[in-house]
Amino acid sequence: MTDRRHVIDRAELGQLIEALRGRGYTVVGPQVRDAAIVHDELAGVGDLPAGWTDSQQGGSYRLSRRDDDALFGFAVGPQSWKQFLFPVESLLWRARRGDNGFQVETPSDEAASYAFIGVRACDLAAVGVQDRVFMSGTTNDSAYAQRRSNAFIVAVNCASPAGTCFCVSMGTGPRADDGFDLALTELIEDDGSVFVVEVGSELGQEVLGSIEHRPSSDHEVQRADAVSEAAAQQMGRAMDTTDIKELLYRNRRHPQWDDVGDRCLTCGNCTMVCPTCFCSTVEDTSDLSGAVAERHRIWDSCFTEDFSYVSGGSVRTSYPGRYRHWMTHKLGTWIDQFGTSGCVGCGRCITWCPVGIDITEEVRAIRATDGQEGH
Fold it and tell me: Cβ contacts of residue 204 below 8 Å, gap of 6+?
């Protein structure tokens, strides 16, 4: 592996996609569908959202045309890569009735090999967070671990943060530092785009070596670094994370929880779009004959009343209690459990909240009155 950066153009990006497909990967990347930028299988460069950007604020997401044909000139859409590594629904086991009783079948250990194109630094950090959740000691999830070990990651350093982004505050972006196989920085030229490529793994070096590329010039490296530096100055939000765990722990009865509870719909949008949330439930089903039974794991949300249901009723029945639980876990107890914050500053929870609740503003409001009498 070498530290030297390289350059590919748009046609060679197409070669990269083909090279990954030739190695058996299902190549997934951003594309425009249903007035949003979503992640789906790519057939080639033509599927990428050339010339599109996004405008995001609390409770608002809009696509618009750029004045160039940048392939990655946007921030993040409603989806993260979580849906491929931790699917919305997965079969845990199936039981069939036979002559000698039920025989239990478990899913094959073979998992799809994904190549992710266009992973932002915040989402790359989110994958690292979920690695800790699903692959640390007693919480090891073999299905997740298999999908994760098969994944090839092509990061793209962000050049166009949204109005709800705050990755700089969380130390997760806008530049990807590690955890990738290849990382691209898009440079806009008069006749199209070129990409400065950084190699992050031996496999990444091997794949790059299979396509056309050239060494980067000092000027191109400087331009690539300037893209990340400019993006870092364009964050739409900021969060003061100083002693944030202790701040939330000592303000469990702060009146701000009631204030946000009056606005929160407990719809669960924030947890569905969050790239690190991992709440799930288990559902058992059987056919009408009783011959086949299945158990599935399905995404769930701690904002639903049923999620905390135990014998006798739900633990968190109030809207303020559910929001407090979510935010305190995300920014506080997650650190105790997994050694890292559960927030990567992607801003999705702000953008996709129907009433525009802003986690950075909630932290700011609590911090502003921390220690006051009655709080």
Answer: 1, 152, 180, 181, 182
Task: Give the contacts of 124 (CB within 8 A, at least 6 positions apart).
Answer: 153, 155, 172, 176, 179, 180
Q: Which residues of 310-343 are buried (b: 16+ CB within 10 A; e: fewer)?
A: eeeeeebeebbbbbbbbbbbbbbebeeebebbbb
H or E element in which residue 198 lies: strand 192-199
Q: Around Cβ 89, how many Cβ atoms within 10 Å?
A: 10
Alpha-carbon distance 165 to 263, whole Å?
Answer: 22
User: What are the phi and psi torsion angles at 284 (to 5°)?
Assistant: -105, 135
Does the pTM exceed 0.85? Answer: yes
What the block records as the tokens of 104 is 């239990």
* Nearest residue to 156 (alpha-carbon basis) of 124, 119, 187, 127: 119
- What are the mean pLDDT values of the chain's consecutive 10-residue runs (375 residues total)? 79 97 97 96 96 96 95 96 95 90 82 94 97 85 92 97 97 96 94 92 96 95 96 96 96 95 95 96 92 94 90 88 96 94 97 97 94 66
CA 15 to each of CA 73, 204, 278: distance values in angstroms, whole numbers, following the listed order: 21, 14, 35
**Contact assessment for residue 291 and residue 351, using Cβ atoms and an 8 Å cutoff:** no
| Beta-carbon contacts of residue 373 (< 8 Å; ≥ 6 apart) | none
In DSSP terms, 8 is beta-bridged to 195
The size of the chain, in residues, is 375
On the CB side of 24, CA atoms within 13 Å amount to 5
How many C-beta atoms surround the C-beta of residue 149 within 10 A?
Answer: 10
